[in-house]
Amino acid sequence: MSRWKSSFLLLIVTGLSIAQTESQLVSDDVRRVARHISCQCGSCSEDANCMMSAGQCGFCKPARAKIWKMQQAGLSDQAVADAFVQEYGAKIYRADPNAYGWVVPYSALALGTLVVVWFVRRYHRPAQAAEAPAQTDETLGRYRDQIEQDLAHLD
User: Fold this and answer.
1) pTM of the entire structure?
2) Structural domain tally of the chain?
3) pLDDT in tens, 123-142
4) Which CATH number is 66's domain given?
């Protein structure tokens, strides 16, 4: 019975220590560095923070554990990223987005707006107004004479 209790206690302590390490593997410091490391599992194109259907892929969890160990050893974020680049090659490093990254979506929006305006102006023809019947000069002259007489009475 004593052996069973000590085995159970050892199992609980091991589980708690693994749980503590697991929470450290997803800490903000580890995630900040893992954002610059590209996943190498082959089934996703994310960074080392990816969470596949089973929770972790075969590359990301060990990579985050390695990042955590390197951070515990006192290495800077850039030194950790450089170690991964040295081990896997330059294709693994994911740089921060460019400051001009906003240009592409806004230029696409502007171009789309111009295309819509061009299309509407080219193919939208307003309905022609119905023309008034042609008046003869004689009829218009009679109305002009009447207007002149009415205006003369106003003075």
Assistant:
1) 0.51
2) 1
3) 888 777 767 666 567 777 78
4) 1.10.8
